[in-house]
């Protein structure tokens, strides 16, 4: 009988992530890993982000979903550089998947200035797997409730930015933005917080400006 420890497999993931990071640095690509529950608004925010940034930057997307290419199709008006990965059940992406996609699609992915990854809709394990990204972003919609920050702390702790989505619905739900800010800062003092609405556009420019600033810092 052989026994494998999950922590050793995660070690392999760390090495793969380091390889990705090296390749991305060589090509000057800023990689942004976007995580959050199904329905939190990852694709909607990507649509608004690509709409604003695509006139000025070369953008690419790795779109992660269990099934379908629906989200990739939603983003296709804004960039041709989209690679869909269907995991057919896997609930997160791992660094070796990304490494494989970079190797197979260098013209689409490594020619970009910003490469967005829409991770599988899941607030739990995507945060356990470093993909080699420069920036990790966690999205939480106001409809999900304040408790999610405290119940699923890892993603909020490990990422540089938290985006509170669907703030246009704040008056209809029991979500307290001040409480969310307090809980987030408690977990991650450095985290930048962007309350926004992809639907009304409120706050989206601020997020995009921050991304541009991250790109300038990397150059
Ligand atoms: Mg999506
Ligand atoms: Zn998973």
Compact overview of the structure:
Helix content is 42%, strand content 18%. The protein is α/β, with parallel strands linked by helices and 219 residues long.
Key structural traits:
Rossmann fold, 7 strands, 219 residues, alpha/beta, binds magnesium ion, binds zinc ion, 7-stranded parallel beta sheet
List the helices and strands and how they pair.
Blueprint: H1 6-27, E1 30-35, H2 42-53, E2 59-65, H3 70-75, E3 82-86, H4 95-104, H5 106-109, E4 114-118, E5 135-141, H6 147-151, H7 153-158, E6 161-165, H8 177-187, E7 192-195, H9 204-218
Parallel strand pairs: 1-4, 1-5, 2-3, 2-4, 5-6, 6-7
Characterization of this structure:
With 219 residues, the protein is α/β, with parallel strands linked by helices. The chain has one domain: 3-Layer(aba) Sandwich (Rossmann fold), CATH 3.40.50. 42% of the residues lie in helices and 18% in strands. It contains nine helices and seven strands. It has helices spanning 6-27, 42-53, 70-75, 95-104, 106-109, 147-151, 153-158, 177-187, 204-218; strands at residues 30-35, 59-65, 82-86, 114-118, 135-141, 161-165, 192-195. The structure holds magnesium ion and zinc ion. The site of magnesium ion has 4 residues, from helix 2.
